[in-house]
Amino acid sequence: MTVTTVPTVLTARALLLDMDGTLVNSDAVVERCWRRWSDRHGLDADEVMKVVHGRQGYASMALLLPDRPMEQNHADNARMLAEETADIDGVVPIAGAGEFLRSLRGLPHALVTSADVALSTARMAAAGLELPEVRVTAECVGASKPDPEGFLKGAAELGIDPADCVVFEDSAAGIAAGRAAGMRVVGVGARADFHEPDVVVRDLTQVRVEAGGDGRIRLYVR
Q1: By CB distance 3.0 to 4.6 Å, which of 27, 72, 110, 184 could disulfide with 154?
Q2: 20 is catalytic
């Protein structure tokens, strides 16, 4: 992957953080659940895995089974969420995530995730990470990433102009959502590298946060 090799400084008034692939590595359980789902529907699991990261389940299902009624996708998604919430085997923090979140205490930031409350709570706990006070989960939005609704709601909850927010994301859908919201995007991990965020880091050990006296947050990316 192509990571940032020259130190970069970004300034923002708030940070909006995706969860899966950004703070938490949940790839193992995502693979297990979606491969089982693929088998049940006679789909190529490798092709399915190219679609599902970053989106709410029903939105992925709508792309993969375009002729199926949406109410079936929502019902299937509810079952999938329950299955994923019960399976935390292999859920671990992204390197540097704990220190990164601790450095944000007292600074404007929010979790913006396609997971619901139960799933986000279970995965953050399994990874030993503290939940941000402000959270935009699946229940809070009417449209899944790549729609920008979640990030715009996160900015509104914090009272910060979208242009003054920086998004941390790993997936194509999430990066597209951040861009559509008018925000700069720090891509985290190998998946992000394919979708041209403003900056790419291998993991969160490459990011240092500093509070400025002017109310701005400075991100030192190396």
Answers
A1: 110
A2: yes
Tokens of 127: 């990874």
* Type of residue at 176: A
Q: Which listed residue (18, 76, 170, 198) is catalytic? A: 18
Report pTM: 0.91
Q: Between the CA of residue 124 and those of 25, 62, 91, what are the distances in Å?
A: 10, 27, 9
Structure confidence by residue, pLDDT tens digits, 184-211: 999 999 889 888 899 999 999 999 999 9
Which of 20, 147, 164, 170 is labelled catalytic? 20
Q: Which amino acid is at 114?
A: S
* Residue 166 structure tokens: 């920086």
Count of all residues that appear for the chain in the document: 222
User: Which of 168, 154, 163, 161 is CA-nearest to residue 221?
Assistant: 168
Of 170, 193, 171, 184, residue with least CA distance to 3: 193
